[in-house]
Amino acid sequence: MTIERTVHNEEETIALGAALGARLRAGDVLALSGELGAGKTRFVRGVAQGMGINPARVHSPTFVLVNEYTPTTDGAPPLIHIDAYRLHSADDLDALGWDRIADGSSVIAIEWVERIADALPPAALRVAIEHAAESERRIVLAWDAPSWRERLEGLACTR
């Protein structure tokens, strides 16, 4: 199943991410793909906002590889943000502590997921971001797991 949206500016990218973030729960994995500058980190800022995390705290983990953000809401899961650009295969995830990261207690957002696609759980939500025009982006959410359908049903019309 898929949902496709065109966003016209950064604010709409963040708003779509926030609408998704409000629907996430511990154990969810977001697999983000898109070329450099497509808006992957900006989308994750929106996800963080929807999860109750200050989006200004969210920065690309390019050099540190992993950032963890704790929401201000009691009982809400943390967001673990991974940049896999410098990883060469799923085997490199072990060095990052993948067993701890993927223990089901957090929401995980992975940028440049194509580098480690073999490590993704089958229930991951795939988020592809493409340039559509100068300031427009085409964002496609795709999933195979039935659990996403109900949670994302209203997202197609969220503005």
Topology:
Blueprint: E1 2-7, H1 10-21, E2 29-33, H2 40-50, E3 66-69, E4 79-83, H3 98-101, E5 107-111, E6 125-131, E7 137-142, H4 146-152
Parallel strand pairs: 2-5, 2-6, 4-5
Antiparallel strand pairs: 1-7, 3-4, 6-7
Helix pairs in contact: 1-2
| Name of the CATH first level | Alpha Beta
Radius of gyration: 14 Å
- Rounded mean pLDDT score: 91
Q: Enter the CATH topology name.
A: Rossmann fold
Q: Would you count the extended β strands for me?
A: 7
User: Ends: how far apart?
Assistant: 20 Å
Integer count of domains: 1
Strand arrangement across the biggest beta sheet: 1-7-6-2-5-4-3
CATH superfamily: P-loop containing nucleotide triphosphate hydrolases
Q: What class, by secondary structure content? A: alpha/beta
Beta-strand content bin = 15-25%
Written overview of the protein:
- The protein has a seven-stranded mixed sheet, with helices on one face.
- It has helices spanning 10-21, 40-50, 98-101, 146-152, and strands spanning 2-7, 29-33, 66-69, 79-83, 107-111, 125-131, 137-142.
- With 159 residues, the protein is an alpha/beta fold.
- 21% of the residues lie in helices and 24% in strands.
- α1 (10-21) packs across α2 (40-50).
List keywords for this structure.
159 residues; globular; alpha/beta; Rossmann fold; 7-stranded mixed sheet; 21% helix; 4 helices
What is the compact description of this entry?
By secondary structure, the chain is α/β, with parallel strands linked by helices.
